[in-house]
Amino acid sequence: MIQSRPSLFISVIVFQLVALVLAAVACAAAPLGADPPASAADDFKPRYTEPDTSIVPPPGATRLPVRVGLYVLNLVSLDEVHHTYICAGYLTETWNDPRQSFTPRPGEGAVRYYQKTDVWFPLVQFDNSTEPRTVAAFTLAGSADGTLRYTEKFSVKLSTNLFLRSFPFDEQELEVYVHPFTEQTRQLVITADPESTGASHASYTPLPLWTTGPVTFRSIAGEVGEGDRAPSHVVFGIHVKRHSEYYVFRIFLPLFLMVSISWGVLWIPPSDLNSQLLISVTTVLTLVAFSVAVSNVLPPVPYLTFYDSFFLVSFFFIMLTIGEAIMVHLMHGRNRAQALKVRSLTRRLFPPAFIFTALLMAVIFLH
Q: In what order do the strands lie in the sheet with 171-180?
């Protein structure tokens, strides 16, 4: 007999509930994270995987020789206050990995190009960078014999030690410390690559007010194990020389003229003290104002520079002129002849004494 529609609907609901209960029981009985049952095709799959050569260095030698080169494209800026500079250029790394050797196929070139995830490559860092370096582009090429060469175009801000004792007639070495990253210190021996080291001769390469010279390099041995030392750093030095003409005409020449103006009191009659002090005090105030005005272009250092010595010598001779004016004026009231004799002597003595002292400071600070 045919069931009524309500009975048929109830039967379907009961069947679905039973199926859900059985499915829940089966899921509870299965272990958490169990793999699905293997199919017949899985029996033909290998039970091992090849080692990933992109994450381990080449086997064999204890430490892998890596040649590192630095080619300077642009010296963007030099902050003499914070002793930092911004540099852009090419960083190259060259090494040999026998696992990447190959026999070129017909029609294939002798060089293959890889991504960074395709092969293992040395990781190096700039130890004296103040910010992470920015990589604009890179190439990773391999030759048939297994020689690989990594080249990147970078921009980075670096710190350096500036020795400004002879400022503004100074020359500096802007240093770049290249060092393997973390555990690779024990795996690599890095040396400088002269062929890929240098500086561009383009017009945009030098810093303003500086001339860029050659790029030098040296290796520094560091401890890479217990009592084991090996070349662990390559230090590149970018030689720069300051254009001193700017400072000669903007600082030294005005200082010399101020001192020369102060000597004008030596040709004023000793009895006119007011005029002598007016010129001398005005010169002192001008010198102080000038010092404040140029302080923003002078590097703050904890030692005297040649500029500091020249400024102090200039200030000393202006004050010496003021002292001479007062002394001669007082002598003039008691012994006019003696006062005129002293004044005649100081006219001939002060200018050469100033020049001699300035030259002596130059010998001491520019040596």
A: 124-126, 171-180, 228-242, 210-225
Q: Helix, strand or coil for residue 5? A: helix
**Cα separation values, 365 from 163, 164, 198, 293, Å:** 12, 10, 31, 24
Q: Which two tokens stand for residue 123?
A: 């990781």
Torsion angle in degrees (nearest 10) through CA of 274, 275, 281, 285: 130
Q: Closest Cα partner for 85 from 74, 93, 94, 95?
A: 74
Q: Which two tokens stand for residue 132?
A: 């992470």
Cα–Cα distance, 275 to 267 (Å, whole number) = 11
Cα–Cα distance, 361 to 355 (Å, whole number): 10
Question: Which among 165, 253, 171, 166 has a CA at the least distance from the CA of 211?
Answer: 171
Burial class of residue 75 (count of CB atoms within 10 Å of its CB; 0-12, 13-18, 19+): buried
* DSSP state letter for 250: I
Q: Which residue has 């260095």 as its token pair?
A: 57
Q: How far apart are CA 354 and CA 126, in angstroms?
A: 48
CA dihedral over 358, 361, 366, 367, signed as positive or negative: positive
The answer to whether residues 179 and 233 touch, using CB atoms and an 8 Å cutoff, is yes
Q: Quick: pLDDT tens for 87-138.
A: 999 999 999 998 899 988 888 888 999 998 889 889 899 999 999 999 999 9
Radius of gyration of the chain (CA): 39
Structure tokens at 13: 């609901």
Do residues 174 and 238 touch, judged by C-beta distance below 8 A? yes
Nearest to 287 by CA among 265, 260, 254: 254
> Distance (Å, rounded) from C-alpha 159 to C-alpha 71?
18
Q: CA 269, 273, 279, 282: dihedral to nearest 10 degrees?
A: 180
Read off the tokens for 272: 């006119």
Could you give phi then psi for residue 83, rounded to 5 degrees? 55, 50
Cα separation, 187 vs 120, in Å, equals: 12
For the segment 318-366, what is each residue's pLDDT rounded down to a tens digit?
A: 999 999 999 999 998 889 899 999 999 999 999 999 999 999 999 999 9
Backbone φ and ψ for 294, nearest 5 degrees, come out as -95, 0
> Which residue is it, tokens 């017009």?
203
Cβ atoms of 306 and 166 closer than 8 Å: yes
